[in-house]
Amino acid sequence: MAQPHSDRSGLLKGTLDMFILHTLRWGPQHGYGISQAIRAGSNEVFQVETGSLYPALQRLEKRGLVKSEWKTSGNNQRAKYYRLTPSGRKQLTSEESRWTQLVEAVAALMKSRRQEG
To answer: How far apart are CA 116 and CA 72, in angstroms?
Structure first.
């Protein structure tokens, strides 16, 4: 298993936002659930700390990409649930496309051999 990375490890700017939007694609979730989904979905590599998660959620809500509402969680606790908005879904599609291009470019670069001249 790869070494875990906390969100302070220098992930590319905006990556956490994309992870959050991606997680919310499957339906509303509270903050702890979002962080656990990111952790599990990355095979325990990405571990999002609350000090980064909640400011990111607030930023996404301010941009109109997510909406929140208070609900009762499965363990009878009040929790703020976040859901993807239509704008958030559109942003996620755009981010995923850019991310795919980046991954492909990095892979091509890593496979390339130095041209001797």
So the answer is: 64
Q: Residue 82: name the closest of 13, 17, 6, 12 by CA.
A: 17
Task: Say how far apart CA 93 and CA 100 lie, in whole Å.
Answer: 11
In sequence order, the 6+-apart residues with CB closer than 8 A to the CB of 82 are: 20, 24, 28, 29, 30, 31, 34, 57, 60, 61, 66, 67, 68
CA distance 73 to 36: 15
pLDDT given at position 54: 95
Structural domain boundaries of the chain?
5-111
Q: State the fold for domain 5-111.
A: Arc Repressor Mutant, subunit A (1.10.10)
Maximal C-alpha separation, the chain: 68
Higher pLDDT, 106 or 114: 106
